[in-house]
Amino acid sequence: MAKKKMIGTSLGGHIFSGINAFLLILITLITFYPLYYVAITSVSNGMLVMQGKVNLYPIGLTLDSYRSIMTDPQLFQSLWNSVVYTVLGTAINLIMSCLCAFPLSRRTFSGRKIFTGMIVFTMFFGGGMIPLYLVIKELKMMDTIWAIVLPVAINTYNMVIIRTSFQSLPESLFESAQLDGANDFTILFRIAIPLSKAVLATMVLFYAVSHWNSYFNAMLYLDSKDKYPLQIILKNKLISGLFSEEASQTGGSTNFNVSDSTLRSAIIMFTTLPILIVYPFVQKYFVKGVMIGSLKG
Amino acid sequence: MSNSKGSTWQAFRKAFARDKYLYLMFLLPFLFYLIFHYMPMYGITLAFKDYSIKQGIWGSDWVGLKYIEKFIGDPYFWQVFKNTIVLNVYNLLWSFPVPIILALMLNEVTHTKFKKMVQTISYLPHFLSVVVVVGMLNTFLSSNGVINEFLGVFGLGPYRFLAEPKYFRTVYIASGIWQSAGWGSIIYLSALSAVEQELYEAAQIDGANRWQQMLHVTLPGIAPTITIMFILETGNIMNVSFQKILLLMTSSNQVISDVISTYVYRIGIQDANFSYATGIGLFQSIVALIFVTTANFISRRVGETSLW
Amino acid sequence: MKKKFWCFVLACMLLIGTLSGCSQSSDNSSSPDSSVQQQAEESKAEESSKADSEEEVSTTAPVQDELVTLTVMKEENASQVIKTDSVKLQYLEELLNIHIDMQAVPAASYEDKKKVLISTDQMPDIMKISPTDLRSYARQDMFVNLTEHKDMLGDFWPIYEGVESMAASYEIDGNLYGFPILSKWTERGGQLPVIRTDLLEAYDLEVPTSFAELKDVLAVFKEKNPDLVPITNRKGGSTTSTQKVLDCMAYPLGSGSGMYYDEDIDGGRWVYGPADEHFLYVLSYLNELYEAGLMDPDYATMTVDQWKEKMSSGQALMYFDNAGFASDFNVALETIDPSYHLEAIPTLTNELGQTRNRYYDQHNGSLYVIATSSSNQTPALQLMNWAYSEEGSDVFAYGKPGETFDYVDGEPVIHEDLLVKFNAPEYNSPYYEIQSYLGVGLLDFTPYVDDHPGVQCRNYALSDEERAEKEAGDEMIATDPGMREPVYEPSLSEEDTERYNELKSTVENIVSQEWDKYIMGLEPIENYREVIDRARAAGAEEMEEIYNTAYNAAQ
Q1: Domain count, chain A
Q2: How many CA atoms lie within 13 A of B157 on its CB side?
Q3: C-alpha distances in Å from residue B120, one per residue of A197, A207, A292, C189, C532
Q4: How far is CA A96 from the centre of its chain?
């Protein structure tokens, strides 16, 4: 598809940029509208949403659906729990993944192949839910924070990405550091990690979001309501509309200022907002990374 | 004999002395994999046993290949097996390149604010739960939905996008791209940030235009990441978004939409037959492993990068 | 650098700490704990035999000498929060010296958690399960056998035996392993035709009494409102929309959507509907509706949200489903036009001349079981038994006597200030809020359900006129001669259960893919006979035989 440059570089460059920008705007619109829709329905009157009248802007402006989430006595406790699980979990993830990825990225590390093979094997084969549950029980981790953060301490997928990034660093850097008497820990923390900031920032995002959104392990390993993360509390409100056959049979009439769909929208906004707030701080690492790339080496 | 043995031992000791910090580093991850991945692995034996709760996994009776034979002999299993593979191969072909293209497009944007905005918005759908996405699909694709009304202007349709089997894969894959392309591009963007700026300067001096720079500098720069991602993706050949399929499945499109995981869910989990479910899970793992090994092998032969 | 290093050291210590902790514990528990369990069970058995000899048939509250803690696990529905300190739970502790540790698992995840806890033998003392679970696990000695403790269950047993043919369905090899959730008083409900009666009046139409008349009525609706959908439907909780349509309409139309009991075939027998001749009537009627544009063009892909949207905005004019929803939709419809009104109508006569439909099972169909691994089996049995007694069931339904309710002429009456309180505008749903506060109702831990408080609270704010109308509607459903009682599935032997499940999944896969082709008219109805033949050959016949043999043996 290599089109020969018949046009001058600057004109061609402009056309190129123009088409590119146009396509990106199109993509943005397509992805934005559904989210915008979620946002406006979350602050609209439930009944009007149900009747399909809310399409372009909020109608019957109300914060009732947010209020209805806020009334949950468990909400703030679970919000705090989620923050703790996410921060601690991500910290452990990052340390463990780097500790795992670095040795595996070194060509000189004997046993590298065996260990890599052993780890990749776990991506496909696992014992399943029952034995893992029993192991965690034996470890006395049931109903503790450790059951949430330790069994997922390394995501092999993410670890492999970090390893690839370490591998792409020039070997000469390490060799010269070794000549200066640095050991492998020093090399990892002073050279490899600082040079892989962009990838690690991405991993922070990936890990943090997966902790923030996860609920299955918490549901399985936690018994006390006061330890539940936010997602468990909200997930129940989110899905219940679809699965509450039992509630529907008893048929207690409800007030329509808050409908299933406005409540759902409010929940999505509520859970996504923290990520939206944190994201720009992480984003700068890999957007700026492009520009400071030349400073490396 | 003893000589060679001794030298191997010596070589090992030498290697260990050299790598002692690396081993120390690897100790914790090693323990992690041992405890949380290898210790529970005895559960695989369930595929060959009749699980009895009070006797535990070890104490349950062996039944040999009873459960393996059960699904291998079931023609409906092969129908869902085919559905799974076909859906995922299409998914790989269509969904894999999109985040790369998006990342490359974003990389060409010089206006930082615009770039940030596009990026932020494009990754947002990732946070929507499947329930919500399917809810939107239902609204947009219904017989009086936006899409059909739009097509109606040209005298087309209405199409039964959700009811007819032939549209199922398109709907599933397209909505998947919509939801995860932005998020997927993050990994490539971060890889792009590591491409040396001097290479662009050198290319510019050689008179390469933007398109050529992208082709000859940017793409090779992120090729290792692309390769690794591709190999990892082939490992997902047997995985599908279970909840999404379950929500999109109707009795009218079941012919195409029923996949292994929904099948296992119906017969295995709902009837609490863990042995059967484990058997099918084992089969899926083996198929996935074959795919990954093949992809890894090819990649190692053709290029330099490989998973192991 | 230093900071990072210390972080690392800290992480190491953490991990090593937990690991060493576990290795110890695994040593302890590696010894088979069955002996300990057995001992516990033996001592329990002694205690219990002591207990009955002392108390005979217990009609008094089972007060414990020492505080006993029982863990109870059930699912929590988002509509009604399960409070761990509800009036009822506090009172139980005060009265019986039994502390109930409520583990309310979000309903959306209950199925998974329940299965894992049972499969790993880690059950709580008392747990809510489905009849399917009962049949899968009871034979594995997971649940306490109640038949062996019959003498302790003087309050429960007569009530249980009073429910006709329930024993034949729930007893496994002659033993009962769980306390079925029974109904002391609940409103009757069912899946009925619910139609816009204001339109019937407006177009001067009679209320249809048969499916044929219904079709004509819907045709008029369509003619007058070409943009609206005459009849719509929803998706089921875990089934497809087509399946839901059939679940609601197949029986009234003369067949059934799965294995069902048909009183009108051979004097009554179990039939697998989709593999039976009569199913053609169902498909052809739905096909007629579809071809005439009367059925929702999206019927096969409807969701709950879309259904609600259509019904409450007046876009759809009728549904055939839970009659209770009508009152919710009417609230919404009245805001568009006060005359809009949905109402359930009596059972329709089908082409075969049958007028038939089914009530919902008045008894919930789920059970509470006591774990064989529990160390508190006796108090658990006593508590459960008491929940079915006069005194106990009132506490489980109304809360604390003197505080939330009083006896007036021997009948429990809920305090009026509570009814007032929960009808205040800040409460979204009076029905669920009062139940949540008291800790009662089907959606809380209640084995013997009495719905009075919730219903009274819901109806409290209604005007006399509205209440009269509501009562007339309930009366219509309760007295409709076409409505029949549900029939309990027979209990199958272990072998039969396995065989049946195997056949069922094969046969279901054959038939369910076909339905829409016939409803949408892509295949002539007559060709469905070939599907029936295939399904019968693949096992539908044997499935019916298994059911009928077991059913007849139990009768």
Answers
A1: 2
A2: 20
A3: 20, 18, 21, 50, 54
A4: 17
- With CA atoms as reference, the chain A residue closest to C240 would be A242
Do A214 and A234 share a domain, yes or no?
A: yes
**Residue A5 is assigned to a structural domain of this protein:** no
* Cβ-proximal residues to C361 (8 Å cutoff; 6+ apart), any chain: C486
**How far apart, in Å, are the Cα atoms of A63 and each of A22, A77, C331, C432, C469?**
36, 22, 21, 22, 34
> Is A251 in contact with C327 (Cβ distance < 8 A)?
yes
Mapped onto helix, strand or coil, the DSSP state of residue A246 is helix
A74 in the same domain as A25 = no
Q: Determine which of A234-248, B180-194, C32-46, C61-75 has the lowest per-residue pLDDT on average.
A: C32-46
Written as one letter, the residue type at C539 is G
Q: Which residues of B touch C516 (CB under 8 A)?
A: 163, 250-252
Host domain of residue A120:
65-295
Across the interface, of C140, C302, C506, the residue whose CB is closest to B54 is C140
Q: Are residues A77 and A35 in the same domain?
A: no
User: Which of C141, C243, C298 has the CB atom closest to B143's CB atom?
Assistant: C298
Please tell me whether residues A141 and A190 are part of one structural domain: yes
Q: How many CB atoms lie within 10 A of CB A71?
A: 12
Of A6-15, A179-188, A190-199, C235-244, least confident by mean pLDDT is A6-15
Q: What is the pLDDT of residues C461-500, one digit of tens each?
A: 888 888 888 888 888 988 999 999 989 999 999 899 889 9
Answer yes or no: do A57 and A69 share one domain: no
Domains by residue range for chain C, with CATH: 60-184+364-407 (3.40.190.10), 191-358+487-554 (3.40.190.10)
CATH superfamily assigned to domain B65-302: MetI-like (1.10.3720.10)
Please tell me the predicted confidence (pLDDT) of residue B158: 84
A164 and A175 assigned to the same domain: yes
**Does residue A175 sit in the same domain as residue A50?**
no
Q: Is residue A153 part of a domain?
A: yes
Tell me which of A250, A254, A261 to substitute to probe the interface with C (most C C-beta atoms closer than 10 Å): A250
Quote the minimal CA–CA distance from B89 to chain C in Å. Answer: 24
Which A residues in the span 98-157 are in contact with B, Cβ-Cβ below 8 Å? 99-100, 102-104, 106, 108-110, 113, 115-120, 122-128, 130-132, 134-135, 139, 150-151, 153-154, 157
What is the tens place of the pLDDT at every residue in C398-438? 999 999 999 999 899 999 999 999 988 878 778 888 999 99
| Contacts with A130 from chain B: Cβ below 8 Å | 43, 46, 57, 274
Pick from C349, C304, C312: nearest CA to C330: C312
> If contacts are CB pairs under 8 Å, which of residues 77-116 in chain A contact chain C?
91-92, 95-96, 99
- Whether residue A4 is contained in a domain is answered as no
pLDDT band at C514 (very low <50, low <70, confident <90, very high): very high
